[in-house]
Amino acid sequence: MGKLLLLDIDGTLLNSHKKLPASAKEALLEARANGHELAIATGRGPFMLKKLADELNIDTYISYNGQYIVHQGEVLHKEALNSETLSTIVEFAEKRDHPVVFMTEEKMVSSIDYHPDIDESIKTLKYPHPRMIEDFHLKNDIYQALLFCEKEEEPPYKEKFTDMDFIRWHRVSCDIVPKGGTKARGIEKLIKKAGYSIEDTIAFGDGLNDVQMMATAGFSVSMGNGTEETKEQASYITDHVDNDGLAKAFRHIGLI
């Protein structure tokens, strides 16, 4: 039986210019032709992975770090954040001049008209500054929120909101997810449905939100550009994403 390949997007599938390297695309299509199944596992939302998923013809994904899971085009699991908890976080953040962005399966909306930290970090994903809509989180299902603050400003949030995880992905931004709401938990739900065992899974990643996924999967690969924590967790460390790292890993582990 083929393997289920769980692929992070930023820094793994996409290089530092947010492009899918030709070598990676070729390797992915060849691996699929060899009987392996491709799945995306990302902190991004469904609307932010659509273009890439369409290009690679992938219809299975764990998005928002496990909050929204789709298997072969069917929604398998979705878990919105508690709106009361979100309101308390927003209130706490506003006192510190830290904006929040709310994410549904279709879009992202800001708690504030404009903030340079939102602009800086969202631009790295090649998206414009989201627009503000009043009380958006009270009227919509929010699967992930982003908090904008620097690393040293994070501890008060972790102390106060013990039922949430704050996972840093940018100098000035963290994903807000329920405690333990990770790609790892998403894998467990997905393999049950897809009929794989954990031994049949291979995780590819580079960031802090990939560490638990890599610990859970049967085998794991860190990109050469990965964080120290990611590299420590990995079964194998490949080259940098900008240096054909993904294709090299596929060859090394015999997928192609």
UniProtKB/TrEMBL annotation:
Transmembrane segments: none
Matching SUPFAM superfamilies: HAD-like (SSF56784)
Keywords assigned: Hydrolase
Gene Ontology molecular-function annotations: hydrolase activity
PANTHER family reported in the protein's UniProt record: PHOSPHATASE YKRA-RELATED, PHOSPHOSERINE PHOSPHATASE
Protein name per the record: Cof-type HAD-IIB family hydrolase
Organism the protein comes from: Planococcus shixiaomingii
Record lineage: Bacteria, Bacillati, Bacillota, Bacilli, Bacillales
